Amino acid sequence: MGFPIDPVVRTIVADLLTAADLPGGPGAWLYTFEDSVRTHGRVADVLEFLRKLEVWPEHLAHVHDVTYVEDEDGIQTVSTTVLAHDGTPHQIPSIRICLDHARVIYKPLTVPPIAHAHLGQWLVEQHAEYVTVSGRHTVALDPAGMRRVLGDGAAVDRASRHVRAALGKHSLDTLDAAKSYAESRLRAHDPALSWERLGTA
Fold first, then answer.
1. Residue 42, C-beta contacts closer than 8 angstroms, at least 6 positions apart
2. What is the pLDDT of residues 113-141, one digit of tens each?
3. What angle do helix axes 156-189 and 43-51 make, rounded to 10 degrees?
4. Closest by Cα among 33, 39, 29, 18 to 178
5. How confident is the model at residue 4 (pLDDT cuts 50, 70, 90)?
6. Strand 103-108 to strand 89-99: parallel, antiparallel, or no bridges (unpaired)?
7. Which domains are present in the chain?
8. FRET partner for 24 with CA separation of 20 to 30 A, picked from 53, 56, 139, 165?
9. 94 has which bridge partners?
10. Is the pTM here over 0.85, yes or no?
11. Is the pLDDT of residue 47 over 80?
């Protein structure tokens, strides 16, 4: 008698099996990029924004709606309705793990046809005079999907630029929103605080 397998585990196993069969091995089709912003807001407020998804529709134009549940271990099961550039809504289920009071790792369970899988991470780091908020993304490209989206002969570098433009914009929007949220909370704690001090190059 076999053990029941969680649907999330089934999805991850399927991704691994598909990646193992890629020409040249999975490493040849992986693309990773990272963006960061600086803020003088508090780490706790940045993390509050990244973790409390119910505030995202108010602050992110591409997020129409979010529902989620979080267990005692900080694992979130999420359904996000994202608006495409033409306003078309797309529902994206995902799993998020809140770690170390400084990281949120997430895996969308559906991805655009150009990719097999996407793994993302939000990372918050305290420095001497500021806080850095980073978004790091690794995408496993799908050769067949690349041909459907970009045409025959599409190369990995072109597909990577396509991913960078689309996913990178949403990532930067989220980082900027986290920065603004934290700095607004900081101003709420100290109304006399000068906004000039909060300028971050």
1. 131, 182, 185, 186
2. 888 889 999 999 999 989 999 999 999 88
3. 120
4. 39
5. very low
6. antiparallel
7. 24-60+97-193 (3.30.530.20)
8. 165
9. 78, 108
10. no
11. yes
